[in-house]
Amino acid sequence: MTAATHASHALHTHAHGAGCGHVAIPHGDHTDYVHDGHLHRTHENHTDACEPSAHTVHQSHDHQHHPGCGHVAVPHADHVDYIHDGHRHAQHDGHWDDH
After folding, report:
1. Which among 8, 9, 21, 99 is positioned nearest to 61, based on CA atoms?
2. How far is CA 97 from each of CA 2, 20, 48, 58, 59, rounded to the nearest angstrom?
3. Measuring CA to CA, which residue among 39, 50, 47, 51 is closest to residue 9?
């Protein structure tokens, strides 16, 4: 699992939580919420944009994600992540990253 960059999402007034209307994704020790094309997490008394801080290849991943593959697809900036085995996978340079 990768560490997340701490990037406070300024002027975010929406309170994410169960039933808030956004897709919830377990991510390590917290839950991310898909909102405005990126991922948010509640951190202390504010909301952060949850982004990985390192490139981490998902070893031994032979499943090819695509629309209709059976995993939740999450638009994320300029690509699509897929929720698989409790974390997000992102296609990158011929392999899959833990996102």
Report:
1. 99
2. 10, 28, 21, 5, 8
3. 47
C-beta separation of 90 from 39 below 8 A: no
Q: What is the mean pLDDT of residues 65-90?
A: 80
% of the chain at pLDDT higher than 90: 0
Buried-exposed string 13-48: b where 16+ CB fall within 10 A, e elsewhere: eeebeeeeebeebebeeebbbbbeebbbbbeeeebb
The pTM of the whole model exceeds 0.85: no
Rounded to the nearest 5 percent, the helix, strand and coil shares of the chain are 0, 50, 50
Residue 22 phi, psi (nearest 5):
-110, 150
Q: Residue 97 in 3-state DSSP?
A: strand
20 token code pair: 């808030």
